[in-house]
Write a structure and sequence with these properties.
7 strands, about 160 residues, Rossmann fold, 4 helices, alpha/beta
């Protein structure tokens, strides 16, 4: 008897606002995968009927103490979902998610810096380089031999 075919599990993480909008534009690329989503606003779940969705604390560099709420939330989600790949458009919750996914699960990770960062990588994006298997910018002029890479723009 053959084992049932399983689809690779993805965990998609994006903060609110433009980060969430950009991830939404990528959603068709995730068809065919077993995908769960994470963001900072519960009402975003309405955009994903029938999909697994988790809400986490909205940590920023201005309220870093929220990492003590965010990290346990993300650890719980990672242990439930056990993704093979974690993809994020940022910001801080996405950075924490890829770091934890890499450390705890050895998951592959992809950071896609926001299109808004046209002159330099975001501060979270610069830190993501340490945890991202693919470290991407949406501006070709920001790409370089040592990264980030440019694969195209979401918008």
């Amino acid at each position: 008897m053959e084992a049932p075919e399983t689809k690779p599990r993805l965990l998609i993480v994006a903060s609110g606002g433009g980060h969430w909008v950009q991830m939404g534009r990528l959603r068709p690329a995730f068809e065919g995968f077993d995908t769960a989503y994470v963001s900072v606003h519960q009402d975003y779940a309405d955009e994903l009927p029938g999909r697994r969705y988790y809400t986490v604390a909205d940590m920023t560099r201005f309220n870093f103490q929220k990492i003590f709420v965010l990290a346990p939330q993300l650890i719980r989600i990672l242990l439930i979902e056990r993704p093979k790949v974690v993809i994020t458009t940022g910001a801080a919750p996405g950075l924490v998610a890829i770091a934890l996914a890499k450390i705890l699960l050895g998951a592959k990770t992809i950071w896609i810096d926001s299109i808004a960062n046209c002159e330099r990588m975001s501060s979270s994006g610069m830190q993501a380089r340490r945890f991202a298997d693919q470290w991407l910018t949406q501006w070709p002029e920001l790409s370089g031999a040592d990264g980030p890479k440019y694969w195209g723009a979401v918008l």
